[in-house]
UniProtKB/TrEMBL annotation:
Domain TLC residues, every copy: 38-226
Compartment(s) where it occurs, according to its Swiss-Prot or TrEMBL record: Membrane
GO CC annotations, alphabetized: membrane
Recorded superkingdom: Eukaryota
Any Pfam family hit: TRAM_LAG1_CLN8
InterPro entries recorded: TLC-dom, TLCD5
Transmembrane parts of this sequence: 12-35, 47-65, 85-104, 116-140, 171-191, 198-217
Name the record gives this protein: TLC domain containing 5b
Keywords: Membrane, Transmembrane, Transmembrane helix
Entry keyword Zinc: no
Organism lineage string: Eukaryota, Metazoa, Chordata, Craniata, Vertebrata
Length: 257
């Protein structure tokens, strides 16, 4: 008896996993809506996004660094069962989040394009049965900074953003995005383009995702520059004010003495 599964089974199982994933994320969202009924829909959706970010980073980290194969050297190889599972979990989430964003019109064209490209890339990897390892690698790099992004949003809503914690979250987010998503992502992009096993359509998808990463990187660099400039001005103003207070005569500070 052959150990290989028929093509219909290999197609049906990922489809079933994606459907189950979509239902699971939707149920989690409804659970959050019930538990935090005093909060708005975006609060609950971002809780789902935070949960997905942590879960998918841990899952793809295991796929890439433990289970293998290594995406830098095995791009374009046949998908493993664990890779298919990770891709299905992620695809179900993106279907949920894309539907939510369209329904509530909460995101701009760049983020919608990112979601559409992510859905297309994962779908292609599942349907063709190849390039799962580098797709999981891209998901790991892309979602690594997502929990920090959601944490930043929650800090704003709770009035805790203008603090040392908020600054630490922003700094870590910028550093991780620049080093992992752009730095390591450039190496991944090169390996995918030069791999003889990777299909042309997957290489084109890699080009789209890489360009979107740079669009985000430019926006993040602008944000980092503006925030650093504002922090420097605030520090200079406080420094001048402290110096002025020290130079005041004692008699002027207490007229009764």
């Amino acid at each position: 008896m052959s150990s290989q599964r028929p093509p219909s089974f290999r197609t049906a199982m990922p489809a079933l996993e994606v459907i189950c994933s979509l239902i699971g994320w939707l149920c989690l969202y409804l659970l959050f809506c019930f538990a935090f009924s005093q909060r708005g829909p975006e609060w609950n959706c971002r809780l789902v996004t935070l949960t997905h970010g942590v879960l998918i980073v841990l899952l793809t980290a295991y796929v890439v660094f433990v289970d293998g194969p290594w995406p830098f050297t095995h791009a374009g190889t046949e998908n493993t069962e664990l890779q298919v599972f990770a891709l299905a979990v992620c695809l179900g989430y993106f279907f949920f989040d894309m539907g939510w964003c369209v329904c509530y019109r909460s995101e701009g064209p760049v983020m919608l394009a990112h979601h559409a490209a992510s859905i297309s890339g994962i779908l292609l990897a599942l349907l063709m049965g190849v390039s799962g390892c580098e797709t999981c690698g891209v998901i790991f790099g892309s979602e690594l900074t997502n929990p920090l992004l959601q944490t930043r949003w929650f800090l704003r809503r709770l009035g805790l953003y203008d603090s040392l914690l908020g600054d630490a979250v922003d700094l870590l987010f910028i550093l991780l995005f620049a080093t992992v998503r752009v730095g390591v992502g450039t190496v991944m992009f090169y390996c995918e383009l030069t791999s003889p096993r990777t299909l042309l359509i997957m290489k084109l998808g890699g080009v789209v995702m890489y360009l979107l990463a740079w669009v985000f990187m430019v926006d993040i660099a602008r944000f980092g520059y503006k925030k650093s400039k504002a922090k420097y001005r605030k520090w200079m103003d406080n420094h001048k004010l402290a110096g002025a207070n020290k130079e005041k005569p004692v008699g002027l500070t207490n007229k009764r003495n």
